[in-house]
Amino acid sequence: MKDGFINFLKPPGMTSHDAVGYVRRIMKVKRVGHAGTLDPGAAGVLPVAVGRAARLIEYLDEVSKSYRAELLFGIETDSGDDLGEVVERSDAPMPDDEAIQKAVLSQTGTIDQIPPVYSAVKINGRRACDLARRHLSVEIPSRQVTIYRLDVLAKRDRGLLLDIDCSKGTYIRSICRDIGRAAGIPAAMAFLLRTRVGAFQLKDAVTPEELEKLGEAAVRAPEAYLQHLERYDVPVHRIAAMQNGLPNHDKSVKFSDMQRLRLYGENNFLGIGKYHAEDESVYPDKIYRA
């Protein structure tokens, strides 16, 4: 079985866990994992790793993501989307353009965001959503996230169509909720489509049906999706040492301390390394090809 990443197009109604099980069954391989959980009701890009590439999923943690979302004015729910229990309802008219613009600007840039109660955020080692389903009190602290771009594509009857580029850890349900609060009218997310995770683009994603037909042809080399990490070429005489877990002292390069790097040896992807500024050395972090 070929090792690598699959740019999987998750349909609405399928959990991310179910998507992994589906890929495992189609590809007939046990070692499968995914990066960046998508809510069951959401659709879009879900990076899936098969074989040895599953060891590299953690290096997708820092990549930015893009979404298209539909915001619905008039209700706020406990989950942040229109599937949750309504906690506030309003028949107030649609906010005017100025109010919408101010509300959108309030959610742009680096902001403090409180994730929804129904989320995978860990509270004392337990997922907030699991605590909420047991009707236990859940208080989620705010976290800093960055919204690089938040565009209103269209105004619809009682809602907005949004395009969003954001950092990891951002909850689009919270953005919709908080736009409503800033505009003075309750709001919830009505639909979500993830259009990008790092280098994984919606236009290249394969549906479950396409994956069945393509099989291994849908699997791409992992380095194609790790371009956000800078490249380091291991000197030929140190390739074997690096593959055996030994660092390479190299005064000719300067990276940030503990910066992760794509390692190459004679133009072949070797794995991921980490730069230690103290001794000016590149250490292997995870060898992919030995």
Structure description:
The protein has 290 residues and is an alpha+beta fold. It has three domains: 4-63 and 198-225, Pseudouridine synthase; 65-197, Pseudouridine synthase, CATH 3.30.2350.10; 230-287, Archaeosine Trna-guanine Transglycosylase, Chain: A, domain 4. It is built from six helices and 18 strands. The protein has helices spanning 16-27, 97-105, 128-133, 172-183, 208-214, 239-243, and strands spanning 4-10, 32-34, 43-50, 65-73, 75-77, 86-89, 109-113, 122-123, 126-127, 143-156, 159-166, 187-197, 200-201, 230-233, 248-249, 260-265, 268-276, 281-287. The relative contact order is 0.18. The model has no long low-confidence stretch (mean pLDDT 93).
Short description:
With 290 residues, the chain is of the alpha+beta class. The protein has six helices and 18 strands. It is globular, with a radius of gyration of 22 Å.
The CATH topology assignment of the largest domain is Pseudouridine synthase
**Strand element count:** 18
Helix fraction bin: 10-25%
Order of helices and strands: EHEEEEEHEEEHEEHEEHEHEEEE
Shape by Cα distribution: globular
Low-confidence stretches: none
Radius of gyration: 22 Å
